[in-house]
Amino acid sequence: MIRLSVLYPTTDGAEFDHDYYRDQHVPLALRTWGLTEADAEVDRGVDGPYVAAVHLRFPSLEAMGTAMAVDGTAAVLADVANYTSITPVLQTSEIV
Amino acid sequence: MIRLSVLYPTTDGAEFDHDYYRDQHVPLALRTWGLTEADAEVDRGVDGPYVAAVHLRFPSLEAMGTAMAVDGTAAVLADVANYTSITPVLQTSEIV
Q1: Structural contact between residues A64 and A16, judged by C-beta atoms closer than 8 angstroms
Q2: What is d(CA B17, CA A91) in angstroms, rounded to the nearest whole number?
Q3: List of chain B residues whose C-beta atoms are within 8 Å of the C-beta of residue A2
Q4: Residue A29 pLDDT class (50, 70, 90 cuts)
Q5: Quick count: other Cβ atoms within 10 Å of Cβ B24?
Q6: What is the rounded CA–CA span in Å between residue B9 and residue B7?
Q7: Contacts of A44 in chain B (CB under 8 A)
Q8: What is the pTM of this model?
Q9: Is the separation of the CB atoms in A80 and A28 below 8 Å?
Q10: ipTM
């Protein structure tokens, strides 16, 4: 099982719309990549370097690659501007 | 629900014993803080800045604070040297 974590560093002067992220953007990403709500967790930072994050579970690296190769991924990336100007950190891991 | 993520940045010249982490250290932390295996996920980095991580779920910030205030926490921290010299990044978030 693979975890893709998208981590948004807290950045002075940059905002993050948590409601839009949870209610609009992450559902768009899930629909685009064939994931369900059970495959995703959205975090709102309380303490530490990240203001927000999402953790997405894929069955394998191959499944993740296939899912993200769809045309709709461009729309997901374009949607980011609707909730933040922060560039996220991407971490791919195997859940052991 | 609260997530405590302990993220180990990949560091030149520093090693990380994934087996010890998964089989010894994380179970010690779970026993010390009253968590079960269902409350924890251990990640092995595949791509991105972190070589390893653990994600621990607590019912609340208060529960996390109470759990980590036990005397055994010192032993958990001392155990880190048995698997790495890397200083982790700690992120506390609310799972929304």
Answers
A1: no
A2: 19
A3: 46
A4: very high
A5: 14
A6: 6
A7: 93-94, 96
A8: 0.95
A9: no
A10: 0.93
